[in-house]
């Protein structure tokens, strides 16, 4: 079968689905991308405020995001990424600290002097100390306690990890942390795309459509059955799309709900818990500390970190306003996640003001507050996940999986989703042309 007659359906219009549809449509494959919501972008999606579009969840690009930057190059958006050095802060017991230099560390009084020194030395060596170790089978807590000692673990790392992974925080493989340190550091150059993430998503859609691909938003997939030769994708009003292959980018718990009994039996059995997120945006009339991000520990807030996005993206993109995001990662069944967004916005505004009172922030400085939630953000990886990671192929079907559960040990990011999309697209193309190399 030639590329032009073969039909591939991509389920999900987040960055992973968009990147797959982009690669395949430009390789001459007939592609239909289906997105349930009325907007593309998935976790990188946006909302209108004034005459601007702003990301619901804070997003930035790192200089090491090679796969993403290559994709941006393909759609003419790479030169539009604005790079800037960014800095980190830390808030402990309501006090704000810089957390960027040796001097900052010496002034970081929540730790005793000898712990500060130990923290600095071990942090410098951490990437090297992890080399050659089986970090996938080592609990993050065991590794960090051993290197940093009990005090630094319980005062600093436990609250920071706990905020991201909930009760399972100590059990996450040390490899996850090691990878994360490879992507980020305190003082780091970060990038923000010109026109925001919406401009990138719009450019991707235009590029897919220019290559003949079909992009349908507001089109939830409601059922899926599959044999090795053919898949049937059920939509609303009885419409069924036939496909030679399906690439599903939706989280596995959602896919299980769409699959017929036969396909469900063939899907990976591993049931990975996911952390969701509750995140608020504060549009402000004045800046905060100028630090891009600051974990917030023991400071009477329900949120665990502040991202001052305008320190990276500037204020013009927000209509002259400053923008700070605050967030708490939590399960989708938690009381906070289930709570009404308006109520969360009101309570978190009080906490946000209290946290920044020393900086002179008052109610009059807050122009607008928005709360957004997402149910499936961070898979909570178990120990030894490198071995147990589900395969991209679903045996006995024509379905391929490309989800955030497949990117481990990479950190969940647009970059790792694009890298996975490249890999899966190459597999789709190789199924027709066995000599096809990576796209
Ligand atoms: C608070 C926060 C901060 C982040 N910060 C960064 C950052 O700074 N930099 C970075 O690179 N990444 C960041 N990320 C991570 C990044 O957003 C994700 O890793 C990435 O967007 C995942 O993309 P995806 O396409 O794999 O999944 P998703 O974006 O989840 O896309 C899946 C899509 O499938 C759709 N879907 C679900 N069910 C169906 C159905 N039945 N039919 C059709 N469609 C369906 C969904 O609507 C969604 O659009 C952040 C995420 C969050 C939440």
UniProtKB/TrEMBL annotation:
Residues 15-370 form the Amine oxidase domain. GO terms for molecular function: oxidoreductase activity. InterPro entries: Amino_oxidase, FAD/NAD-bd_sf, Zeta_carotene_desat/Oxidored. PANTHER family: AMINE OXIDASE, PROTOPORPHYRINOGEN OXIDASE. NCBIfam families: PRK07233.1. This is NAD(P)/FAD-dependent oxidoreductase. It comes from Umezawaea endophytica.
């Amino acid at each position: 079968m030639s590329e032009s007659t073969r039909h591939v359906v991509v389920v999900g219009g987040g960055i992973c689905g968009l990147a797959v549809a982009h690669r395949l449509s430009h390789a001459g494959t007939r592609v239909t991308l289906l997105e349930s919501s009325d907007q593309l972008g998935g976790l990188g999606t946006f909302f209108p405020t004034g005459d601007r579009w702003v990301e619901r969840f804070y997003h930035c690009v790192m200089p090491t995001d090679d796969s993403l930057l290559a994709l941006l190059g393909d759609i003419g958006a790479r030169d539009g990424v604005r790079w800037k050095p960014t800095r980190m802060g830390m808030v402990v017991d309501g006090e704000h600290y810089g957390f960027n230099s040796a001097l900052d560390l010496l002034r970081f009084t929540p730790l005793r002097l000898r712990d500060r020194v130990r923290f600095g030395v071990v942090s410098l060596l951490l990437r090297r100390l992890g080399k050659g170790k089986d970090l996938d089978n080592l609990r993050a807590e065991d590794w960090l306690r051993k290197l940093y000692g009990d005090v630094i673990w319980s005062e600093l790392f436990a609250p920071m990890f706990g905020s991201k992974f909930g009760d399972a925080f100590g059990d996450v493989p040390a490899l996850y942390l090691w990878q994360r340190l490879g992507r980020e550091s305190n003082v780091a150059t970060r990038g923000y795309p010109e026109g925001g993430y919406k401009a990138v998503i719009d450019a991707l859609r235009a590029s897919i459509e220019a290559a003949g691909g079909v992009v349908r938003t507001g089109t939830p997939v409601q059922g899926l059955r599959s044999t090795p030769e053919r898949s049937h994708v059920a939509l609303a009003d009885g419409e069924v799309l036939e496909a030679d292959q399906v690439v599903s980018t939706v989280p596995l718990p959602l896919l299980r709900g769409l699959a017929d009994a036969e396909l469900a039996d063939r899907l990976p059995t591993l049931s990975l818990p996911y952390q969701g997120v509750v995140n608020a945006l504060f549009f402000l009339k004045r800046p905060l500390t100028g630090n891009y991000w600051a974990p917030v520990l023991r400071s009477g807030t329900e949120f665990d970190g502040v991202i001052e996005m305008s320190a990276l993206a500037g204020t013009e993109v927000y209509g002259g306003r400053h923008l700070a995001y605050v967030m708490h990662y939590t399960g989708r069944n938690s009381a906070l996640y289930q709570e009404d967004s308006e109520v969360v916005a009101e309570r978190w505004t009080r906490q946000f003001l209290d946290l920044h009172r020393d900086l002179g922030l008052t109610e009059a400085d807050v122009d607008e507050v928005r709360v957004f939630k997402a149910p499936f953000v961070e898979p909570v990886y178990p120990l030894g996940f490198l071995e147990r990671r589900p395969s991209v192929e679903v045996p006995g079907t024509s379905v391929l999986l490309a989800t955030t559960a497949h990117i481990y040990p990479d950190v969940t990011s647009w970059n790792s989703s694009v890298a996975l999309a490249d890999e899966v697209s190459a597999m789709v193309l190789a199924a027709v042309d066995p000599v096809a190399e990576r796209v």
